[in-house]
Design goal:
This protein has 591 residues and is of the alpha+beta class. Helix content is 43%, strand content 15%. The chain has helices at residues 5-10, 13-19, 29-34, 43-56, 59-67, 75-78, 84-92, 100-117, 135-145, 150-173, 178-190, 211-227, 273-287, 314-319, 338-344, 375-379, 417-435, 470-491, 510-522, 537-541, 569-590; strands at residues 231-234, 240-244, 253-259, 295-301, 362-370, 383-389, 391-400, 404-405, 439-441, 445-446, 454-455, 458-467, 494-503, 506-507, 529-532, 547-552. The strands form three sheets. Strands 1, 2, 3, 4, 5, 6, 14, 15 and 16 form a nine-stranded mixed sheet that branches. Helix 13 (273-287) links the parallel strand 3 (253-259) and strand 4 (295-301). It starts with a helix and ends with a helix.
């Protein structure tokens, strides 16, 4: 019989420790310390208690824990001396049935890894879905992590140990993240659609109104119908809109959703997680025959990334009346106008103005999104509550000096445009760090017609500056631009700057942020608040209605816009549970 929280909470210390045996390899002290937090309010409360124990432990204790683990497909596996838990995990991943070539490759990786780090490679081989990673994925991950910094790799090993313990704990309690599994499966299935030129390489790219994009829209539409939405339609810009009616005809709606387009060679979860989490919630309401005092409108926004046309937030912008007619005449790389692409897809551009929503008909907008950053991953927290979406300013700049011979021009006679930009980059890094949540980036940096033996006479570069509030952003921008002028004058150079983009910050509505906070707390997790450095569809809806976002932890240091973007079914389950809790809060308030 599966273990229950009630049994664990009521057991004496020795019995409780025995019930948690085997979670961490040969390290019962972690569970023993975590048990001091009893009674546990949820399984996730218990999981986090063990995370905290290890976070507070000494560095040597963490190293000892890593070294207590066996190598993958190593001597212990060959000698059949693994623990029962490790045997099960390595067997599920197929490591007990390696070919001679695979076994030799893993043994070499084990040797190289131990030589570099001094501890064994740790990977949760049952993976984000719990079913087991493919052997090639294990080998590829092994090879990739071999190049990490030792401090980072130590932390990554600990994170994987916690994931192993989470899966083992699920097994003990008979816990299956059923809805999280469904959300994970929807995303994996949708990722089969990719644009030509990328699909053949196994890469995910879905740009606006391509065949892959339209296939995604049809697939999402079908799933929405299967979930029990009362109305499902593809609107005039390609948004997929599902509406689940309230229990009274005059009820307002909760608006939610995110985008289903991707960057080129991107990840499977950016945007799409925010579509499928509320879909799972609606499906459960439909299965229970339950209607709420308000309706739920889930929008899979057709475009957010601006990859095919220079028109970001096209999908969510249309809902607030911010669709610019001149966009229709933009051409993509193949000379196809947006208007022609829409008509080919069966959309009617003349109907776009009618998409504008009346905020009086809505309670507000909420969005679930993968974090796209390392913060939650480093803290081993599955969920984070967003305080604000950063405001941003972008400039395209050119520094002009004097090109001259690299061998004959003395260092104190140079008018080096690239070195001036390098000086600015260091200042921007230091200035942004003063604010904590501010960021500044020079992401583009080119020396036109540069030569190896010529002092750069020109340097073209970008400036991207972001902060959680407009005032903080503006102060950052002012300081960096002032330093740019000072560097230019001191070095005898000239610089031109062109404002490329300004986006206002979108602070979360306090009441809606608190709803997410209560939902996270109800799950037995600590409430962690953080700003969003990336832009989201919520920024657009913020202009006409209250909004708040929930972040879900990403794996692989939270990397996003990258094939390594990933999250676990367990964390997705928590997102569904948190969303359901918000629905229940709203339902109680509206009755």
């Amino acid at each position: 019989m599966p273990l229950t929280l009630e049994q664990l909470n009521q057991a004496d210390p020795a019995q409780a420790l025995a019930l948690l045996d085997g979670l961490y390899e040969h390290s019962p002290w972690i569970a023993a310390a975590a048990l001091n937090e009893r009674p546990f309010r949820s399984l996730d409360h218990l999981k986090h208690a063990m995370v905290k124990v290890l976070a507070d432990a000494s560095p040597q204790s963490r190293i000892d824990l890593i070294r207590a683990h066996p190598e993958l497909a190593g001597k212990a596996m060959v000698a059949r001396s693994l623990t029962a838990e490790s045997t099960n995990e390595q067997n599920r991943a197929g490591l007990t049935q390696c070919s001679l070539e695979e076994f030799a490759r893993i043994q070499q990786l084990n040797a190289d890894y131990n030589a570099r780090f001094g501890f064994p490679f740790i990977l949760a081989v049952r993976g984000p879905r719990g079913l087991g990673l493919a052997k090639q994925e294990i080998i590829d991950t092994f090879a990739r992590r071999l190049h990490n910094h030792p401090d980072f790799e130590c932390a990554e090993a600990i994170r994987n140990i916690h994931r192993i313990a989470e899966i083992r704990l699920n097994d003990k309690f008979g816990h299956v993240p059923t809805l999280g599994n469904d959300v994970w499966d929807w995303q994996e299935s949708l990722a089969r659609h990719s644009d030509p030129g990328f699909a053949e390489l196994g890469q995910l790219t879905v740009t606006y109104l391509t065949d892959a994009h339209r296939a995604c829209a049809q697939r999402i539409s079908g799933w929405m119908r299967d979930c029990g939405f009362d109305e499902v339609a593809i609107d005039a810009v390609g948004n997929v809109v599902g509406r689940y009616h309230p229990n009274a005809a005059d009820g307002r709606y909760l608006l939610t959703g995110s985008h289903y387009d991707t960057v080129r060679n991107g990840g499977k979860y950016d945007g799409r997680l925010g579509i499928f989490v509320p879909m799972a919630c609606v499906r459960e309401l439909h299965r229970a025959g339950r209607r709420l005092p308000f309706g739920i409108e889930v929008v899979a926004f057709a475009e957010e990334e601006g990859q095919r046309y220079k028109a970001t937030f096209l999908g969510s912008g249309a809902l607030i009346g911010d669709f610019k007619p001149e966009w229709l005449d933009q051409e993509d790389a193949d000379g196809i106008t947006m208007r022609a692409a829409m008509q080919h897809a069966g959309l009617c551009p003349d109907d776009i103005p009618a998409l504008q929503r009346d905020p009086a008909h809505y309670l507000g907008f909420v969005e679930v999104h993968i974090e796209q950053g390392p913060v939650l991953n480093e803290l081993d927290l599955p969920l984070g509550v967003v305080t604000s979406i950063n405001g941003s300013v972008r400039y395209l700049c050119e520094m002009t000096g004097m090109a001259s011979h690299a061998g004959t021009t003395p260092m104190n006679r140079r008018r080096d445009a690239a070195t001036a930009v390098a000086e600015l980059a260091l200042f921007a890094e230091q200035r942004a760090a003063r604010d904590g949540d501010s960021v500044a980036t020079i992401g583009q940096w080119q020396v036109p017609n540069g030569s190896i033996n010529v002092v750069p006479g020109r340097c073209q570069f970008s400036l991207d500056m972001r902060a959680p509030t407009d005032a903080q952003r503006d102060a950052l921008v002012a300081d960096i631009l002032a330093e740019l002028q000072a560097i230019t004058a001191r070095r005898g150079l000239r610089c031109s700057t062109e404002l490329a983009m300004t986006a206002a910050a979108a602070p979360s509505d306090p009441a809606w942020q608190q709803r997410w906070e209560r939902a996270v707390e109800a799950l037995g997790l600590p409430v962690y608040r953080l700003p969003s450095g990336a832009g989201h569809d919520a920024m657009k809806l913020h202009e006409i209605m209250p909004q708040a976002m929930l972040f879900v932890r990403g794996l692989n240091a939270g990397i996003s816009h990258n094939p390594l973007e990933s999250s676990t079914a367990d964390d997705m389950q928590l997102a569904v549970d948190a969303f359901t809790h918000v629905l229940n809060q709203l339902s109680d308030a509206e009755q």
